[in-house]
């Protein structure tokens, strides 16, 4: 009878440990999913920034203000045929 009780106690402790471990794993999964969501938000922001930076008027404005470039006169432009 004592062996049966010890087996029952060991089984109960194993069930408790298993439940505890599964909760710990679930909490870790939730943390990683939250981090993944943050990366998704950051990726979206970077994509938006990329499209804004690639806008033609933004490039022209940046060339004028930061690089002090100016548009050449029409007669100074040379067109090359491919």
Detailed description of the structure:
The chain is an all-alpha fold and 82 residues long. 76% of the residues lie in helices and 0% in strands. It has helices at 2-53, 56-65. It is rod-shaped and about 105 Å long. The chain starts with a helix and ends in a 17-residue tail after the last helix. The mean pLDDT is 91.
The structural class is mainly alpha
Q: SSE string, helix = H, strand = E?
A: HH
Summed up, the helix count is: 2
Proportion of β residues? under 5%
Q: What characterizes the major β-sheet? A: none
Q: Which blocks of ≥5 consecutive residues have pLDDT under 50?
A: none
Helix percent band:
over 70%
Rg on CA atoms, Å? 32 Å
Quote the distance from N terminus to C terminus.
96 Å
**Tertiary shape:** rod-shaped
InterPro entries: Cell_div_FtsL
Subcellular location: Cell inner membrane; Cell membrane
Protein name: Cell division protein FtsL
GO cellular component, one term: cell division site
């Amino acid at each position: 009878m004592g062996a049966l009780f010890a087996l029952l106690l060991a089984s109960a402790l194993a069930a408790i440990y298993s439940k505890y471990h599964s909760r710990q794993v679930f909490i870790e999964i939730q943390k990683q999913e939250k981090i993944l969501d943050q990366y998704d938000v950051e990726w979206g922001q970077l994509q938006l920034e990329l499209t804004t930076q690639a806008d033609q008027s933004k490039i022209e404005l940046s060339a004028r203000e930061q690089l002090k470039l100016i548009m050449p006169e029409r007669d100074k432009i040379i067109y090359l045929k491919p």
